[in-house]
Write a structure and sequence with these properties.
With 104 residues, the protein is α+β, with helices and mostly antiparallel strands. The chain is built from three helices and three strands, in the order αβαβαβ.
Length: 104
């Protein structure tokens, strides 16, 4: 995963993304992955002409790093699955997935 991340970051330095529309979904409660580098990548692709939208699961959902985790391990499929389904089909996510305001 680290190699994929590094390769993605490097390619973003001089290439547009392979898609015109990109959706980032972050987890405010994630203490493993920092949002900053993901937001930097989103901004970089936005500057290269992609339509980039960033959503975030709020801290109040208390989701673990692996948002797909089973309920007994802190997951919440009733929040996560409808969000993923809506975003993957180009729709608006449920109200708990907040669109992050970007200042690009």
């Amino acid at each position: 995963m680290f190699r994929l991340g590094i390769a993605t970051r490097r390619s973003a330095d001089d290439q547009a993304p392979g898609a015109n529309e990109l959706v980032f979904l972050l987890n405010e409660n994630d203490r493993t992955v920092k949002a900053g580098p993901a937001l930097d990548l989103a901004k970089q692709w936005w500057t290269r002409g992609a339509n980039v939208v960033v959503y975030e699961f709020p801290d109040s959902l208390r989701l673990p790093h692996n948002v797909m985790e089973a309920a007994k391990r802190g997951g919440n499929s009733l929040a996560v699955f409808p969000t993923l389904e809506a975003l993957s089909q180009g729709g608006a996510p449920p109200p708990w997935a907040v669109q992050r305001k970007t200042t690009w």
